[in-house]
UniProtKB/TrEMBL annotation:
Residues 160-309 form the Peptidase S49 domain. Residues 36-90 form a coiled coil. Residues 2-157 form the Peptidase S49 N-terminal proteobacteria domain. GO terms for molecular function: peptidase activity. Its EC number is 3.4.21.-. It comes from Scandinavium lactucae. The keyword Membrane applies. InterPro entries: ClpP/crotonase-like_dom_sf, Peptidase_S49, Peptidase_S49_N_proteobac, S49_SppA_C. It is found in: Cell membrane. Keywords: Cell membrane, Coiled coil, Hydrolase, Membrane, Protease, Serine protease, Transmembrane, Transmembrane helix. GO terms for biological process: proteolysis. This is Protease SohB.
Length: 348
């Protein structure tokens, strides 16, 4: 017994030391992350990436001796370019042949539209350096979600439009409901042929467990100050008056949604397209919901001929706990996305 007691005491000491080390490590990580909490902007030159891909493909088609000659010529070319750039920098001369820039942003929206945090930073960064000849392309993918989240996301894009900056929205997969609210802010919408477009409507559903709880002799008391502070409830008994007010609020939100879309795209027959239906790209083009059929890839490749194309991403550093909880939230969001897809469009 004495041996077991000593062994248990030893294990307790070891556990205490491990916990102490974990606490200290967590504190250090948190202090470090507080300094870096703001995140960082990452800019990728898509034009250079495409040029490198072209070069790789061209070299792959050459035989061994030709590849050596090509690499030698490229090395000589890069050396000369670096020398000229250094000489111009010493003279304070800027490159006169600078191409206008295309700033590419990405928004892959979730149900709660939390990606708007990064979008607002990216828009702010672009506004800080953009020139009159530049333009912005947003690659958008979203089935919509909460009204206030997508309302803010659309407002961030509105900042570009208010500055008269050409904004093109490229939709490869889906821009529906709140996603289309964002898309319609653009001066031009380019959609892939089978992308899902539209769904200009508002939906809300809420389960009610009142009868189940009543059968179990469980009472729920709900106290509010204000006649419509709570219209429908999960656990209490819903009234017809509450349902009517809930529908009125839903219709009012739909009315605001319609007005916003019509303001952005006045050529639309808003009553015809604001039925909550969605359409594929080609159908959406016929109804005026989009302006052109094509993929974001072809759009950007076409712009590379006369522009420097740069991708801007804001990366938020996640806290230690968020790294564990974030994956679970992302899985739940993917599940909601699949439910939406099964209910709103045919499987194929």
């Amino acid at each position: 017994m004495e041996l077991l007691s000593q062994y248990g005491l030893f294990l307790a000491k070891i556990a205490t030391i491990v916990v102490a080390i974990a606490v200290v490590a967590t504190l250090i990580v948190n202090l470090t992350q507080r300094k870096r909490q703001r995140g960082e902007l990452r800019i990728t030159n898509l034009s250079e990436q495409y040029k490198e891909m072209q070069d790789d493909m061209s070299v792959a088609l050459l035989d061994g001796p030709q590849q050596k000659l090509w690499h030698k010529a490229q090395k000589k070319k890069h050396k000369l370019e670096a020398k000229n750039a250094k000489a111009n920098a010493k003279k304070g001369v800027t490159a006169s042949g600078d191409k206008p820039k295309v700033w590419v942003l990405d928004f892959k929206g979730s149900m709660d539209a939390h990606e708007v945090t990064a979008l607002r930073e990216e828009v702010t960064a672009v506004l800080a350096v953009i020139k009159p000849q530049d333009q912005v392309v947003l690659r958008l993918e979203s089935p919509g979600g909460v009204v206030h989240g997508y309302g803010l996301a659309a407002s961030q894009l509105q900042r570009l439009r208010d500055k008269n900056i050409p904004l093109t929205i490229a939709v490869d997969k889906v821009a529906a409901s709140g996603g289309y609210m964002m898309a319609c802010v653009g001066n031009r919408i380019v959609s892939a042929p089978f992308a899902i477009i539209g769904s200009i409507g508002v939906v809300a559903q809420i389960p009610n467990f009142h009868r189940f709880l009543k059968n179990k002799d469980i009472d729920i008391e709900l106290h509010t100050a204000g006649q419509y502070k709570r219209t429908l409830t999960l656990l209490g008994e819903n009234t017809e008056e509450g349902r009517q007010k809930f529908r009125e609020d839903l219709n009012e939100t739909h009315h605001l949604f319609k007005d916003f879309v019509h303001q952005m795209r006045p050529q639309l027959d808003i009553d015809q397209v604001a039925t909550g239906e969605h359409w594929y790209g080609q159908q959406a083009l016929e109804k005026g919901l989009v302006d052109e059929i094509g993929t974001s890839d072809d759009l950007l490749l076409g712009l590379m001929e006369g522009h420097e194309v740069l991708n801007v991403r804001y990366l938020q550093r996640k806290k230690l706990m968020d790294r564990f909880t974030g994956s679970a939230a992302e899985s739940a969001d993917h599940l909601l996305m699949r439910w939406w897809q099964r209910g709103q469009k045919p499987m194929m």
